[in-house]
Amino acid sequence: MAPFQTAVTITPDNRDGQEIIEVQILPQDDNWGENTTAITGNTSEQSQSTEDVSNWPGEPDTGIGFMCQRYMGALITYVLSAVAFLSPVAMVVFPKLGFFPALSNRLGLAEGDRLLACGAECKGQLVSLAFKMAILAIGAWAVFLRKPHATLPRFFLFRAGVLLFVLICCFAYWLFYIVQVTETARAATTPEETVDYKALVAYASSLTDTLLFIHYLAVVLVEIRHLQPQYYIKIVRSPDGASRAYGIGQLSIQRAAVWVLEKYYTEFPIDNPYLERIPVSKSRNTSTSFEFYDVDGGNNSQFQSRAMLAAHARRRDSSHNERFYEEHEYERRVKKRRARLVTAAEEAFTHIKRLHHDQVPAIPMDPHEAAQAIFPSMARALQKYLRITRQQPRHTVDSILSHLANCLSNDLTPKAFLEPFLVSDPVLQNEKEQKSVQTWALICEELLTRPIADGALFQLRQNDVSLLCSVKKLPHFNITEEVVDPKSNKFVLRLNSETSV
């Protein structure tokens, strides 16, 4: 049994001037979105159709190796950040918890309590330490404690260098702290020769200052260094030849690849493999054939071969002309069906209006029911436009109705409803590209950790789509000052008999 469509008409009521919504059930074609013949442009015998499932991006790797590669770097960062952040706190708290009994055993309980006492100056240092720790926590959370949005094939040198510097700093401070507290307490014979609690608080505050400076260094190297554009990178996509050019800062090759993919998914148009060859109308899709007749009854095979070669040569010479007319005809058909679609959408939106509290209710409908009511009046025009632009595989009836209901609930205009069908960018608008993990292969002759330079060339490849990225250095801009004489800004009128002035 075929599904049904609902059509809505609005007629005025002579009694109270209100509108009555009449719903009519109409049969719907079962072949919506499935009766499109895709012309892929594959001409060789070994070519494959774009309908082949193997040509589309596969599921991302979800094995243990991929998970370790994705989260191991973040886990190491979290552990080192936690150790570095808790070190100053531990240096202040451990003596109070009795982790260093040499202070009391060597000098006696009374002297040990006196050394662990905290006066006014010590308390001021503790307050300063608390605020420094709060600032360090916020800064570490903003720079380091972030979920990685890209898994790189090699180490990020600057980030790894900063983490190594943090590890060395914590190890050196802890080593000096333990040796200074334990050895000094064991060798001291008087209370003046040992370390008091005030010195330990100052030592912890010194470690916090060092960590703040390391964090500043990390911000400069990881976040700020690449912001100033030094190169421009041109991205060319194959097979459709879409290209963009951007200014880019000093990045390594692998980080530049991540930056390119961010731009690609947010600014490039959707790659439609069904438009590799321009659809030709049935009236122009006619093949020319030649037939030869032997009127003299003799053998004219040589004449036929020469005639065939001449005909093929004439067809080859006129192929550019045929392509020009095909592109012109296709653009005309697209514009024509787009105009019909916009007109049908505007007329369909006039058949529905929001129900207010001060009105007499007619037949109240929720947004989804209203979308089902007005969709049939524009379905044919939309289907023809999607068919000629080869977008039917991307849009189903359910997704269109859901989008239409969302537009109606938010009081959007017909052109806002048609935006996903008329605008083909960005790439992430395509539902097939909306995946949690996108796997790309980075191909480059240089080491991936090296910074990009003038003339660098690398390629990103995902199945049949490849992005060729070429890097050029921005020139040095020499700006000179030129002073204009104020007297040169005065003019006189030149009268000429041949002019109308």
UniProtKB/TrEMBL annotation:
Organism: Dendroctonus ponderosae (Mountain pine beetle)
UniProt keyword Transferase, yes or no: no
This protein's GO CC annotations: plasma membrane
Recorded family membership: Belongs to the Vang family.
Compartment annotation: Cell membrane
Domain of life: Eukaryota
Descriptive protein name: Vang-like protein
UniProt entry keywords in alphabetical sequence: Cell membrane, Membrane, Transmembrane, Transmembrane helix
Entry keyword Aminoacyl-tRNA synthetase: no
Membrane topology term: Multi-pass membrane protein
Pfam families for the chain: Strabismus
TM region positions: 75-94, 126-144, 156-179, 199-222
InterPro entries to which the protein is assigned, alphabetical: VANGL (IPR009539)
Bias kind Polar residues: ranges: 33-53
Stretches for region Disordered: 32-55
